[in-house]
Amino acid sequence: MGWLEGWFSSPPPSSDPLKSIDPQLREFLKRESPVKIQQQQEKDGQEAARAALPTQATQPGAEATSTEPARPKVPKESLFQDGRYAHLWKTYRPYAEIEAETKTDHEKLMDVLDGYKQRKHNIGRAALENCAIQQEEWVNCMKRGDWEDRMQMCRKQVQKFERCYTMQTRFLKALGYQSVYDRPAQMEEDIQMHADALYNRMIEQEKAIEAAKAEGLPVPKFDLSIPEPAGALKPRPDLEESWQEKLKDLPEEDRAVEKAAMLADFQVKAAVAKDVQQLWDEQEKEREKRKAEGKATITDRISGLFGGK
Prior knowledge:
Shape: flat
Mean pLDDT: 79
Protein name: Autophagy protein
Helix content: 55-70%
Number of strands: 0
Order of helices and strands: HHHHHHHHHHHHH
Largest sheet: none
Structural class: mainly alpha
Organism: Colletotrichum trifolii
């Protein structure tokens, strides 16, 4: 029982821990050593890797396809853009698309006109936001202003606010605020901030002109004209003449901005008219199709009597 002596005897001064073990046990441990098994596995893995190198070199696209499988497409409304629950989104349709199919011709026309009215409302709201300081001065004057100002109904503050609102509205129109459908909100906010910056620059220029006049210096000239957008439609000669008549009644420093605002309004109105004409053309095509199929409605017959085909 040599292996018992190996346990109870003192260890020999040798670096081999298996020397004092029974030869049969030592042979068994060497044969079944996990280190040996691990080395054999590493050797097999290296040989398999060397064998796979030519295949990978000849098929580089196959590895990319296997490592990066194509993700199923999901609409932007899904919270999981990695493709999860894609089977639930196969039959999805946006609500706006479904609503557009069920709208009547009158509702489509009203949507176009309501969009034009909403733009005017949004321009007024943005101008009020840019003139918040002037409006606050007016309110404070009415509540806690000097006796002289309150006797005059805070006329100076009111005039200051009205001028701010008018000029801010002109700048917003001239810069194309709310003139493009479905434009990012950040871009609309940038236009609003730029309009406010132009107004403040105009006020500084007016102060510089007044200071030059008071000191008897030459009056500096500033250019606040806004360039026309590329591809802008030209108004009819009679319409342009009516614009010139209106511009004559304005101060010279306000004419350039007002003209740019008029031109921008003209572009928006032309776009609205184009959309309305497109709706009418679509309605006419649908009426002709129903007539050709023998499914004309009473409305189709009435519209034919009053100018329709």
